[in-house]
Amino acid sequence: MNDDHLKTLAQVRAFLGGTQTVKFSLHGKTERYDFVRRSLIRFAYHTLSKPDKGLLLSFMSHVSGYSRIQVKRLTKTWLEKGKLQPRSSAGNGFTCKYTDVDRRLLAKLDELHGTLSGPATKKLCERRLAAVQPLRLSAIGRYLGVALVQPEAIQNLSRDSSPV
Fold it and tell me: Which of 18, 53, 105, 135 lies 20 to 30 Å from 149 when distance is taken between CA atoms?
């Protein structure tokens, strides 16, 4: 949206008075943040009186499509940090705790013993881990992951896995 023709608060007041039924929406978070930042700078937000600040917040909220409280948050960030940038998402913030080997082992246990409860399956893994611990180091790694599984998660892992 080209809003360069709005240079005074009187023009903003007239704009809001005539466009209450029209919805403006900027595309993309970066474009919205940039609009809010440009508006704060253009109208020298930090020097405005309280009623004028409210008018400017209404204008930015109306055009950006953000709620008034979100525009206030963005304004506060700009006042504190001097810049306004959307945070980049880290993608999926959850890491995979259990491996495919753990899932296959649970599927094998379900196949051998029938589908047991979570605590019973965990106990079987702990017993097997204790039995192979003095014997083979490679077997420890195989059962250690499943022995540490929370009983509540065992049903989820078993459901997601298929028999080996």
Answer: 135
Identity (one letter) of the amino acid at 72? K
Please state whether the predicted TM-score (pTM) of the whole model is above 0.85. Answer: no
Residues 42 and 69 in one domain: yes
Contacts of 99 (CB under 8 A, 6+ apart): 145
Q: Are 39 and 56 in contact (CB under 8 A)?
A: yes
* C-alpha span between 129 and 141 (Å, rounded): 9
* Residue-level pLDDT at 73: 94
The three-state secondary structure class of 109 is: helix
Give the relative orientation of helices 50-64 and 68-81 as an angle to the nearest 10 degrees: 110
Report the distance separating Cα 156 and Cα 162, nearest Å: 12
Domain that holds residue 122: 100-160
* Residue after which a domain boundary falls, among 81, 109, 143: 81
Per-residue pLDDT reduced to its tens digit, 75-124: 999 999 988 888 877 667 677 777 787 778 788 878 888 877 888 888 88
Q: Is the dihedral of CA 62, 66, 67, 73 positive or negative?
A: negative
Number of domains observed in the structure of the chain: 2
CB-based burial of residue 143 (10 Å sphere; 0-12 exposed, 13-18 middle, 19+ buried)?
A: buried
